């Protein structure tokens, strides 16, 4: 009765889902899909929350659900909820192939052709649509990942970075997410091959020992990084210069177990809590945190217990903090 009076009653639909999930009554799935079809005409957004639930209960295949989704897109090209559901379902065939078949040349060619078709399709959509730009960026990354077994070069890196820059401008509420994703692409780009890595070798900092081998030093400065990505490619690094970025977290850096010197000068680290991963770096001897924002946060109750003694600790008028560490 509630749905007859108000088909957009979210509470009634959620209660209906709960009743169906209990399995107390035999479900007429044909009727359920009929009701969903009626709901689509009233509220397309809510129906896409219901569809996966009913499809899963009836064991509808992803191929059938994808066909239904495409029919909805054909009837309303601007139905972004349908596009979102299509994106979720579209990757299922790839997952199934990878789980059951070898990575043969034939299947790789089919995957690349399909990705290329999707890229061409999304290029034709509205230029300033956030959803289109984000999906296009992910498709470019997927295409590069599929081609990486042939070549280490990331063909679409510039396009992806441009798309994330556009998203940061168009969608400032989610700028943090886009900046993090952009950072991963940047680090991937500069660590993608030996030539790129060699260009990042550095002995520029005066506290980085000149006795260390050249191939143990990496400089990733002035890249606007907000997070550290691709750490699996940096496991051999002993000296890492991350100065002049936008880092506010060090999550992931604990994987660099050979690290002895770390330059975090001119970043946006604002609390001792962010330094927690450094406790796991047993070989770390030199750390520069100058010109960060430690102390700017009004409350930071975390006490970082590290296996080092502070040789130099100075707060200046501009909130300058420089720490030189040595074993206790």
UniProtKB/TrEMBL annotation:
Keywords: Prenyltransferase, Repeat, Transferase
Protein name: Geranylgeranyl transferase type-2 subunit alpha
PROSITE patterns (UniProt xref): LRR (PS51450), PFTA (PS51147)
Reactions that this protein is recorded to catalyse: geranylgeranyl diphosphate + L-cysteinyl-[protein] = S-geranylgeranyl-L-cysteinyl-[protein] + diphosphate
Sample GO molecular function, one term: Rab geranylgeranyltransferase activity
Any one of the GO CC terms: Rab-protein geranylgeranyltransferase complex
E.C. no: 2.5.1.60
Primary role: Catalyzes the transfer of a geranyl-geranyl moiety from geranyl-geranyl pyrophosphate to cysteines occuring in specific C-terminal amino acid sequences.
Highest taxon above the source species: Eukaryota
Enzymatic class: transferase
């Amino acid at each position: 009765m509630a749905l007859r009076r108000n088909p957009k009653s979210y509470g009634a639909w959620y209660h209906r889902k709960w009743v169906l999930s209990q399995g107390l009554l035999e479900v007429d799935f044909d009727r359920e899909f009929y009701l969903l079809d009626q709901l689509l005409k009233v509220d397309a957004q809510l129906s896409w929350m219901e569809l996966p639930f009913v499809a899963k209960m009836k064991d509808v295949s992803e191929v059938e659900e994808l066909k239904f989704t495409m029919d909805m897109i054909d009837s309303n090209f601007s139905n972004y909820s349908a596009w979102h559901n299509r994106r979720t379902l579209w990757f299922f065939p790839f997952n199934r192939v990878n789980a059951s078949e070898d990575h043969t040349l034939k299947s790789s060619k089919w995957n690349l052709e399909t990705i290329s078709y999707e890229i061409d399709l999304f290029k034709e959509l509205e230029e300033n649509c956030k959803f289109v730009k984000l999906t296009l960026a992910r498709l470019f990354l997927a295409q590069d990942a599929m081609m990486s077994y042939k070549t280490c070069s990331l063909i679409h890196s510039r396009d992806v970075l441009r798309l994330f820059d556009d998203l940061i401008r168009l969608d400032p509420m989610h700028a943090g997410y886009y900046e993090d994703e952009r950072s991963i692409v940047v680090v991937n780009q500069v660590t993608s091959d030996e030539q790129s890595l060699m260009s990042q070798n550095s002995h520029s900092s005066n506290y980085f020992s000149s006795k260390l081998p050249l191939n143990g030093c990496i400089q990733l400065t002035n890249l606007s990084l907000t997070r550290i990505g691709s750490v699996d490619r940096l496991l051999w690094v002993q000296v890492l210069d991350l100065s002049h970025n936008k880092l506010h977290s060090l999550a992931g850096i604990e994987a660099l177990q050979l690290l002895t010197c770390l330059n975090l000068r001119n970043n946006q680290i604002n609390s001792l809590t962010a330094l927690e991963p450094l406790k796991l770096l047993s070989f770390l001897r030199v750390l520069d945190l100058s010109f960060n924002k430690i102390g700017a946060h009004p409350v930071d109750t975390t006490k970082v217990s590290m296996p080092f003694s502070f040789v130099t600790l100075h707060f200046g008028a501009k909130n300058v903090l420089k720490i030189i560490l040595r074993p206790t």
